[in-house]
Fold:
Amino acid sequence: MSEHPKGLIGQPLDRVEGPLKVTGQATYAADWRGDEPHLIGFIVESPAAKGTITALDTKEAEAAPGVELVLTHLNTPKQIPFGERNDDGNFAQSHAMMRTDHVRYVGYPVALVVARTLEEARHAASLVRFEIKADGDAIFDPVANEKLAEKPDALDGAEEVDTDTGDFDAAWAGASHTVEAEFHTSGQHAAAMEPHATVAEWDGDRLTVHMAIQILSDARKGFANTFDIDPESVRIVSPYIGGGFGSKLGIHNEAILAALAAKVTGQPVRVNQHRRNVFSNGPHRSRHRQRLKVGADDHGNIVAIHHDSLAAMSRDYPFAEAPASPTRGSYATKAMHTQHRVVEADIPKVDAMRAPGEAIGTLTFEAIIDELAHECGVDPVEFRLRNEPEKDPNSGKPFSDRKMRRCLLEGAERFGWNGPASRREGDWLIGHGMAAAIRPNMMMKAEAAMELAPDGRLVVRLDMTDIGTGTYTILTQIAAEAMGIAPDKVTVELGDTDFPETCGSGGSFGAGSTGTAVLDAAENLKADLLSRAAKADRDWKGVNSKALRITDDMLSLDERSLPISALDDGKAISAKGSASPGKAHENMAQYSYGAQFAEVAVDAVTGEIRLRRLTGVFDAGRILNEKTARSQLMGGMVFGIGAALMEESLMDDRYGAFMNRDLAEYHIPVNRDVPRLDIHMIEGFDANSNPLGSKGIGELGICGAGPAIANAIFAATGVRVRKFPIHMEDLMEKLPPR
Amino acid sequence: MYPLQLTINGKAHETNVDPRVSLLDLLRENLGLTGSKKGCDHGQCGACTVIVNGRRINSCLSLAVSHDGDEVTTIEGMASDDGLSPLQAAFVRHDAFQCGYCTPGQICSATALLEELERGEPSVVTKERVELADEEIRERMSGNLCRCGAYNNIIDAILEVAEARA
Ligand code: FES
Ligand code: FES
Structure:
């Protein structure tokens, strides 16, 4: 018999879908095979933008062996224009493709060649002849076009676009120590290992898509708004997703192209973006310019903070990242000014990438805070402790649980922090640096359904996704603990729009929001079971549901027991549950916290940078699964390493083309780039966050990792680099003499 | 179309292939073995790693027709009737993956790596002789990218199995 399930939440349960993943049986979008063979689509990209297709000859391609269709703007079925119907946001807006002869950006599809096999499609794609006339007035670089900057209507994940508290000019003028700098962070690509892939199939007006997507409900609206159909007639299936990191929040080009081609051919069509496609047919994080000014008084108390940001926004795709958002909750100050501006540009979609705002906002802000601590002659840990705010510096709202102090102190202890120390080992310059981490904690709406079969098996269903975050596992744990049932009797089914609607995976809100919905469904199911039990057997009247257990096909409570089949004539019993953000999300400032400490070695001759150690201590409320939570933090820290030292999407600003569109040129950390990561989670329970007491964790690990590394590089070399990623050539010329 | 005979996971296959088909696409598209993943199709990520005649290769970089007579092992061939292979089980236990997309490639790569270690084949970080340590595994697994960042746990899983065999 399976063991007693109480206290299951938090346990380091192995991933329940683990065996499927290690045997190659988990079906990702491109692995799905239906009854009918799929036609395969291959994208023909435009090498110029923005502009107009002035000549197009598809005859040769159409005549090539195996080709079933060459889809171009001349034969695409009816679509709502791109960008329209965006009341529900950019994921739900029309994502129309190839509707007209207009080319929006470099890499934009000019044609989709559909054939029986990939080889046939790819070859025929090379036979499509076309000419593009560029308009000549395209905008690519936001900084060079700053005069076109506008205030965005809204920011991603932050309430106000600009904020002003206190009198910044007066506070700045009165500060004893000031630092002022301009930072540049590079464009980035999420580079999930699984390229975007979609299989689309129509049955009359009903569309079924198997695809890799983080939020099913928004995607469903996106398809409906593109094809002018009812969302109810769109079914999306996405049980396994090969990494998201924001890049699969919304639908991207291959999805619409597959649906268009399936409509024309009347057959299922699969389109896999190849790796080079992903860089322009998927989303990216804009490059940003951030200007920062920070000032402190004689005692090392911060008095003035200014943080402004300038980025690109892809034309007709309203998304603006909020790098100054984490700044607003970081430190006590007399005055603070934050501001975000965007320049509409003719480039591929700019969208959320893991920890939008914080990933690049804490990168720059925590670097300049380090400079200010240095100017004040105060240890960086002590400086941060000294400037811990009592209430949210921007809104004035009280904080929900804030364990920043403990993160800083325990991190310093674990790392062996002894100030921003430096030493030399042969040709290696060694330095220590640290940074604080902060990331807003969010809660969203979600629903869930549960069904208990007479044989004692519990099935949980919701349209949530598991993008590697551990959703299958933590929802199993939550359901099992709440129902008093063994976890191996629980099956969680995700990623299908036939299931109850949720917020999906994004913004680190998935676990708390959907976990709460599952918890609620369990409470409702238990109440129903008990009222049925009381009807079947008066011994069960007025009992407390807490002690309820389900073992095999029996319901039991203390000495009572009853077969499940007796509750409803041998039928399965089901219940629904829901979750929504409570008042505490409006009235309180809610964040997850952390502190990270890095040791780097810089080659005194070449400037080569090696990360040697990274310690992170985090406060993410209650941990739902010690093993998967740790992995989330670890993955975040690796992302942080990439942002600090490697990742850089380079655009040729003459033509608006990304130049490094593959994994040999877009560098993400490999195994040898990552030392042993020391990760510690502070136990907590934030009752204001949700009934589970958990807070967002998936994006927290990035925050603080990069600036800790940058600050360690300063300690090692005395060089402040104000661009990211930091490369050896940024240091080489400035290294101290030997 | 070219005739091709090869053994995959111990089973003989006879088929005709388009000479442009990569070994990876042969597995995924023609034979329905979708466990091997395509992350880049350019030999840059390792998601497609399979074992051919005892050596790990990127199957996306290799034409199917060049494998006439070869023995191929894919992720589908790792588990036996007794259950998961020691590496597969260690990957689950150590949470050596998150999304799981790179995992078939990581496990195929690690399986061949264990043999390389046993043969005492040196790597660029090997000093006197091959030692079972982080750095040796890290170097040898750096051709398998993991965007979820499970690297530390991948090392733990491999070291555990390597030490048990040593
Ligand atoms: S798919 Fe073969 S190396 Fe990436
Ligand atoms: S587990 Fe997701 S890429 Fe490795």
